[in-house]
């Protein structure tokens, strides 16, 4: 099928149960057993779960108490983020053997543009297979991959044959692939959006494709254009070697629930200090402060304020966070507080990057 937009050879590499897999690799006694990284304390939250634990319904962001209830044999291990970062660096070194166009999304996943690559290999499918093989040889860990004409489809495809597999969606297969896709598998469509789509009679990509742009804009606002495009295989976002952050934040989960704003001020002071450190390290500032509050019943509330100037100092961050805290009465005792800064002064660079992007029309077989 011919497309009226640039085609690329994009690979999305996603490590399999990364944190838990690192722990199982480093401690052979954990292999084949249900493992949860984090979540071991009374107030703990699971950061990652092995595939053995996932069979029992254990998932990231789940409370340790609930995870233990789902899987009584669950083994909790403390996170070792320095170790995860160390292994991640080894994995990225492999990526750079093939291309400099690498866009890390986190420690365990990244996009690679191999349209033109250092190996001169015309097959993105074979490159992905080779990368996964090298990752296993170097780290002992398995990775999955998705390969297609853009980032969106590659991301969706990487989840198809997990763990330790890959899926290629060639140009001539794109439309059928998207039309057959369950709407829940569309990257970016969460539970709430999926339920809304269901209520509108949208269950598959084909259903979504049948809705007009006007209809999608009416029901989904700014996201309407995105949904209209991606189901037609249109996603022009390029692989960005230096991703520009949209926000920077810090948060803390407490051992005991907090029931008074007074007790929260000290916590906010520490969180603001950590946020200041991260902002200084990245040499950025922002205008929009958001206070995140997670209550003891796990309901989440956010309160935001946009200032007329950029800030990055702890004092100004804390001052605004306090204002947001006292904005309205707390609904329950609090188990987590977080502060994030958005509307960053990187937006000008982002606009410049977009303007300078040059897309070349390519026709090829993946």
From TrEMBL:
GO MF term list: damaged DNA binding; DNA-directed DNA polymerase activity; magnesium ion binding
Enzyme class: transferase
Keywords: Coiled coil, Cytoplasm, DNA damage, DNA repair, DNA replication, DNA-binding, DNA-directed DNA polymerase, Magnesium, Metal-binding, Mutator protein, Nucleotidyltransferase, Transferase
Protein name, UniProt field: DNA polymerase IV
Places the protein is found: Cytoplasm
Subunit comment: Monomer.
Ranges of residues in domain UmuC: 10-190
GO cellular component term, pick one: cytosol
Record-annotated site: Substrate discrimination: 19
Taxonomic lineage of the native organism: Bacteria, Pseudomonadati, Bacteroidota, Flavobacteriia, Flavobacteriales
Binding site for Mg(2+): 14, 108
Entry note: cofactor: Binds 2 magnesium ions per subunit.
EC number: 2.7.7.7
UniProt feature coiled coil, ranges: 334-361
Function: Poorly processive, error-prone DNA polymerase involved in untargeted mutagenesis. Copies undamaged DNA at stalled replication forks, which arise in vivo from mismatched or misaligned primer ends. These misaligned primers can be extended by PolIV. Exhibits no 3'-5' exonuclease (proofreading) activity. May be involved in translesional synthesis, in conjunction with the beta clamp from PolIII.
PROSITE patterns: UMUC (PS50173)
Cofactors, names only: Mg(2+)
Family: Belongs to the DNA polymerase type-Y family.
Reactions it catalyzes: DNA(n) + a 2'-deoxyribonucleoside 5'-triphosphate = DNA(n+1) + diphosphate
Residue positions of the active site: 109
One GO BP annotation of this record: DNA repair
TM region(s), chain numbering: none
